[in-house]
Amino acid sequence: MKKIRALVTGGCGFIGSHLVRQLLISNNFEFVLNLDLLTYSGHPENCADISDSRYCFKHASINDKQNLLELIKKEKVDVIFHLAAESHVDRSINSIEPFVRTNIGGTQTILEVIKETGCRIDLVHISTDEVYGSLGKNDAPFTEKSPISPRNPYAATKAASDHLVQSFVNTYGISAIITRCSNNYGPRQFPEKLIPLMILNGIKGDPLPIYGDGLQIRDWIHVEDHVNGIIAAYDGLRNGNLSPGDVINFGGENEKTNLEIVNEIIKQIGNSTSEIKHIKDRLGHDRRYAINNKKAKDVLNWSPKIIWVNGIEETINWYKNNEKWINSIISGEYRNWISKQYKDDF
Ligand SMILES: NC(=O)c1ccc[n+]([C@@H]2O[C@H](COP(=O)([O-])OP(=O)(O)OC[C@H]3O[C@@H](n4cnc5c(N)ncnc54)[C@H](O)[C@@H]3O)[C@@H](O)[C@H]2O)c1
Known about the structure:
This protein is of the alpha/beta class. The chain has helices at 14-25, 65-75, 89-94, 97-117, 153-172, 194-204, 223-239, 258-269, 294-300, 308-321, 323-329, 332-341; strands spanning 4-9, 29-36, 55-59, 79-82, 122-128, 176-181, 184-185, 208-211, 217-219, 221-222, 247-250, 255-257, 276-279.
């Protein structure tokens, strides 16, 4: 069977760095090219320990069309796993421009490049459950048929990119699928997001800022379950179980309020002196996300494997044991962001 040559965009980010590793575990991939611009959330440290000769890193932007076109042709790429994005809702509320440029413009570039090669290059477009909007407490979880109804600027740009992908499948016959996953947690997540922020503050004994009443519900999934889903979706596209234009949802079957998450983290850290501090709620904060996994289970034979209590314990231990990574990540940019974002709270 022909070995696969893959391009991962955003491979120095949180999920991308796990996907790159997982692809290299598989013998099906003869080449894994990680293209990353190394923005504030992308770090070479996330892939620094990868010594596989099939792995290659390229520091570049998905918005640089000519470079992308030449690279894809030169490296004879078979599939693009597209993860590069601006990914933090709070930042999109403060400034939408980078989100439009990267999430919409960058996806547009990738689609045009695939079209212009004139070859079959599969695209696995990594989207999010946030494109579906918000659920009430008793609403049924999102399915792939739920209406697209984004409610914050980040989600709106991801929804726009999903629509662009669908339009290129329909108009130009591009071989693309879309995955929509719930909130991820695990090692190497940039500590502006809820779980790593609470772990780091909890370890240091700093206050634990929680938006509003903390009763917002998310469906948490371990990042390794997500990347296994992404690979299973690509397998599904290759073996015909999925068709171009298909959407596939992934979720952890693990709905929890933010307060439950933070209490579990503090319990597991053990001797933390940190206390929860309720702060002004995020603007337009979605109340609940939940995912129906049935299609992924039925069509891809995928299911989430990592149990929350084990996954969060392993994640906390990873942060405790990786001080060097934390020190390299917590740069001036990170400190500026935290002091700006929480300036009225501490
Ligand atoms: N984190 C989650 O819980 C979650 C859930 C569902 C879907 N997603 C999606 O998964 C993808 C990855 O999310 P993440 O949490 O790993 O994000 P992240 O912010 O950790 O990583 C994003 C990566 O993209 C890179 N990047 C940004 N702009 C770029 C550009 N113009 N060119 C090349 N690289 C660029 C960054 O340097 C970084 O390495 C995103 O598309 C996100 O929407 C994330």
